[in-house]
Amino acid sequence: MSLVLEPAVDEDVEKITNLSLDAITDPKQGNPGGDYIRAIWPNNHTAQGRKAAAKRFSQLMKILPPRSFMKVIDTNLNREIVGTAIWLQFPKAPTQMPPLEGDYWDNEEDKRYAQHLNNENSAVRLRRYAAMKGPVITLLIMCVDPAHQRRGVGSLLVQEGVERAQRLGADMTVDSSLQALRCYEQHGFRVQETATLPLPEEWADKPRHTVISMVRPKD
Description:
By secondary structure, this protein is α+β, with helices and mostly antiparallel strands. It contains six helices and seven strands, in the order βαααββαβαβαββ.
């Protein structure tokens, strides 16, 4: 098989940032999460925005808790990266989420909108964590290059996280898209909640973002 799962390294960050943004925000993929990512990671359709996103991603990696940062490469394509996942590991379920800060947005209103979405999404996650005791492994991001979907890339990345959770005796959580739902279900995840993030009247014309919360209890 030409697909190989490996730890990602610092030199992969720019490629993985671009792959992730392409996979999530490409309108051809019909991914409703794209609107959310475009708000949180602004201007990612421009070269300057992509450069800023890669730098921001590198900074984020330095402050994250213990994690599994993995990539899938294709040995038949000169080791091209075709998928990636980051699983975060917590000794117990988090009781708070970090705020969204920085100067990445074009104006204050765009920043406030992104912060609102982040806060509402964090509230959904905290509801999920509230029922968990002991260690937790949660998916920060998983992306597969659209050109390499339906080849088992996502399954390799999810299975690595499941095996890690089994070794630690940890509950697992993910936020799923509709496209990835079946992949997670095949690895023992179940839907716990489907929530559409509320928007105040001032942003009533903005797209609605729906979060599909899934859990996989410890074995």
